[in-house]
Amino acid sequence: MRFRTPDKKSPWMSQKEQLRLVMLCVALVLVVLAMQRASEPESWGWLIPSEQPENLEQDSDQVVITLTGETVPEGSDPANSQVQLTTELPPLLTGDERAAIEDDYLGLKKNEEPLFQHAVQRLAETNRGVLQLNADRSGAYQVWMAETDAWRGKLIEFEGTAKRIIAREDQSNEGVDRLYDLWVVTPGSGSMPLHVVTAGLPSECPTGDGLNTPLNLIGTLFKREGYAAEGGLRTTLLIAAAPPTLVGAASTVRPPKRLVPLMGAMAIVLSLFILYSLWNTFRAITKSAVHPSLQSSDDPDPDFSLIEAEDLDQENTAQIDLQNMESQEVESNSVEFPNEDNSEQQLGQ
Questions:
Q1: Does the predicted model carry a pTM greater than 0.70?
Q2: pLDDT band at 52 (very low <50, low <70, confident <90, very high)
Q3: Residue 73 in this model has a pLDDT that exceeds 70
Q4: CATH code for position 245
Q5: Are 164 and 183 a contacting pair, CB within 8 Å?
Q6: What is the four-CA torsion angle of 173, 176, 180, 186, rounded to 10 degrees?
Q7: What is the arithmetic mean of pLDDT over 182-205?
Q8: Which of 251, 235, 230, 239 is nearest to 63 (CA)?
Q9: Residue 129 domain-assigned?
Q10: Are the beta carbons of 162 and 211 closer than 8 angstroms?
Q11: Does 173 score more than 50 pLDDT?
């Protein structure tokens, strides 16, 4: 007895299962990307709030000003110990000094070097609170580049990201211990860095190339200078600045609060989709395929002895039928012929 074999093998995975497997791989890739993004400390703000309460957060137009002074001894006469606090800052550059500065030159000229060093030294010695009171925050990179003469010598305050911080090897500057060259980009400058020179850095501020350090800078626009770049000569702004301050974690830009529920909902939907895909894939793999021509595993094994007996009976029956057919053929072929003597007698009569 022969069992019928199918002409074609059933595929290992159907088209529906292949599509489900592709969707599962895409979901796993999204999970890996989300894990990489979640590993960055900048993305923890919406999950782990800062130590400062929310009601103490300052608006973007508010400035914290810290002024230093001497304490009044106890027992002294308050009327005699009053000290007038001066917050006015004299101009860093006079009119003649501003007129002597020329833009669009590579570096500083000889007559500009002492003016620039004097401005850096004054900014380093002035209280930062006084600088913040006199600083102008309304300008931007495009305005400073277009109206350099109008902004020259004015005190400006802005935030930027330092991409490179290098300490100058030549320490021959009078009154300044060390100068640092900072290449800073702002939201308005894009890929065009500003050249900032300062006389100090915070102790935790890194130095070198390939940086991404956010800083708060206060200084004065000195001139528009040229510098050598990979694409040739370019023009940027040279700024004499006071020692900058690092923009702390409290000032890190956080996602809007209305995005937090949306991010949570997206995470829940993605988790449900992954669980559903895994469940369907597991069910498809563990489910045994049912073929109508094969018996299930629960049925008892077939008794082949009965099949052999039936085959023997069929063979015996076929032999008997064959013998009967041969005997019938012999009988049909046998014909009775008349006796010759009888035929002759009949003819003689």
A1: no
A2: very low
A3: no
A4: 2.40.50.140
A5: yes
A6: -110
A7: 91
A8: 251
A9: yes
A10: yes
A11: yes
